[in-house]
TrEMBL record:
Domain of life: Bacteria
InterPro entries on file: Homeodomain-like_sf, HTH_RpiR, RpiR-like, WH-like_DNA-bd_sf
Protein name: MurR/RpiR family transcriptional regulator
Recorded coiled-coil stretches: none
Species of provenance: Streptomyces alkaliphilus
Molecular function GO labels: carbohydrate derivative binding; DNA binding; DNA-binding transcription factor activity
PROSITE patterns (UniProt xref): HTH_RPIR
Gene3D superfamilies xref list: Glucose-6-phosphate isomerase like protein, domain 1 (3.40.50.10490), Winged helix-like DNA-binding domain superfamily/Winged helix DNA-binding domain (1.10.10.10)
Pfam families cross-referenced by the UniProt entry: HTH_6 (PF01418)
Amino acid sequence: MDEASARLLKFFQGRRLTPVQRRIAHCLVRWAADAPYLSSVEVARAAGVSQPSVTRFAVALGYDGYPALRRALRDPDRRPLGAVGAGGAVATGGGAAGPVVEREDAAAGAERPAGDANPHQQAVLAELEHLRQLAALLADPRPVEEAARLLAASRPLPVVGLRAAAAQAAGFAWFAAKVHPDVRPLTVGGSELIDRIEGAAGAGAGALLCFALPRYPRELVPALAAARTAGLRVVLVADTAFPTVAEPGDMVLPAAVGTALSFDTACAPMMLGRVLLEAMCDVLPDAEGRLERFETRAAERGLFVE
């Protein structure tokens, strides 16, 4: 990667952009030498998007239009006005989140890989850095252990994850069901989501685990509000220590989400989910017995190919 491309890549990294906006950013990185002189129409044509999308891209970076962004691309010392996220929301979130860990946002201050790596390698290296950040946060195991005790004691245990976060919630719930007697994955939104959360609370649940990853679905807000009203303690695995969907009293466990590709990568949140599950196994009664019984039945039924 040449110097101009590396500079533009650093310029765009850490921004909360939509997939279309990331296509524009990647296009500008590929055409780094010409990028500061291209019109918005030319950028739109090269990226395969509309011209208004290029304007929205500039606004998402904190500028009042594409001409202002182009001037910034010509001046390496000019800085964007602020890190504005998808849809105009500030990427770092807001509100009094009240996280368990009072640490720097897991996504902030990441060391960005440089050198001759191509964009695909840069994305992988950035994910490795997110995992290093997670390892540093886990040097204090108390937040995860506290969350694990709450979740292990909840009967049933609702696990929420909508849209992009549905895969994380479903994966966690699949493994958790091997050691927890009643896990209820909730990965579809709509009016029935609140019904199912309230039903879990009525059945005796004491806590709810939610994977809250960007972009946060709007329907997640009333769902979590219903959980709190029903008396459930909300545990959030989120991309930041201060997600916009959190409220005081929630337990927030942060793990950064990668933004170097057109679509988010969630290696660190997935790893954090597995660590949380491991901590639950340490406190769940008969967790090892349940695992052994599952393995015995799996062998008897021939569930897996050796």
